[in-house]
Amino acid sequence: MALRDRVGTIVDGKPFQRVIIAVILINAIALGCETSASLVATHGTLLTTLDHIALGIFVAELTARLYAHRLRFFRDPWNCFDFLVVGISLLPAGGVLSVVRSLRILRALRLVSMVPSMRRVVSALVKSIPGLVSLSGLLTLLLYVGGVVASNLFQSTGDARFADLGSTVLTLFQITTGDGWSDVMRDLMPAQPLAWIFFVCYLLVGTFTMLNLFIAVVCSAMESEIQSPVPAPRPAPDDSLILEELRALREEVRALRLQPAGKPD
Predict the structure, then answer these.
(1) Each residue's pLDDT tens digit, 55-103
(2) Do residues 57 and 146 share a domain?
(3) Are 207 and 178 in contact (CB under 8 A)?
(4) What string of DSSP letters covers 80-110?
(5) Is the domain of 82 the same as that of 137?
(6) How many CB atoms neighbour CB 183 within 10 A?
(7) Do residue 110 and residue 11 come from a single domain?
(8) Which of 52, 125, 185, 215 counts the most CB atoms within 10 A of its CB?
(9) Residues 151, 162 contacting (CB under 8 angstroms)
(10) Integer distance in angstroms from the first to the last C-alpha of the chain?
(11) Alpha helix ranges (H) inside 155-194
């Protein structure tokens, strides 16, 4: 087996993947500990050493995968994601790029590319983007229509939350999340006794219908991702079986050579 194939077998193997997952978890814990001033004061050198070791392991892993797969490495979006995350960690963290230091925690997101179940969840979310975009447009239209209606109904009350279209839309967005809608309604009812009709109708359409549609789109994409057939892995060739077949072929060729001419078997 060629060296490139051996390296590919190692980096794609489950034992190696488990080691990388362990390094990601340790590195994430170390980066979290660096946010504590007391831990940095007592174990700062250890945390920095762990960070550098983890980064070195990630660079070596990506180098090995690039060597094993060559340009095929970039055909997998998850490989490109890993390459981008590790590449950001290699940028200098001084001067105008000091914010890069805080982006080191992005290495923890590599768990998504390493754990198959997490990859399925993210793939389902990506597949649901077209439906979510359509629903977002519909929700935006609902907010605009509701904002115009609410402005005309409640602007005369003097409530600052309905002073103009922008404030009204922001208030309706707050109501859509279910945050404090009853307080807004009761504040308006002394001046507008029938204000509850608008709020109840808006909640039925905006909250109970629209938000549940968002959940339905994501759940549908998740279900289709789970039910999609997973191709069975191809069995690795057994070297001993290949050698036995080669020996059998050689014996047949030798027998044909030794067979007398004109006397077919």
Answers:
(1) 899 889 989 988 888 888 888 888 888 888 888 878 776 555 556 667 7
(2) no
(3) yes
(4) HHHHHHHHHHTS--SGGGGGGGGGGGGGGGH
(5) no
(6) 9
(7) yes
(8) 185
(9) yes
(10) 38
(11) 165-176, 181-188
| Residue for token pair 């549908």 | 220
Whether residue 135 sits in one domain with residue 211: yes
What are the structure tokens assigned to 247, written together?
């020996």
CATH of the domain at 153: 1.10.287.70
Q: Are residues 58 and 152 in the same domain?
A: no
Residue 238: inside a domain, yes or no? no
- Band the pLDDT of 233: cuts 50, 70, 90: very low
Residues 108, 12 share a domain: yes
The answer to whether the beta carbons of residues 85 and 134 sit under 8 Å apart is no
Cα–Cα distance between 41 and 246 in angstroms, integer? Answer: 66
**Other CB atoms within 10 Å distance of the CB of residue 95:** 6
With 0-12 / 13-18 / 19 or more C-beta atoms within 10 angstroms meaning exposed / middle / buried, residue 135 is middle
For residue 170, the enclosing domain spans: 127-227
User: If phi over 0 gives left and psi between -120 and 50 gives alpha, with beta otherwise, what is residue 44?
Assistant: alpha
Q: Poorest-confidence range of 17-31, 96-110, 139-153, 228-242?
A: 228-242
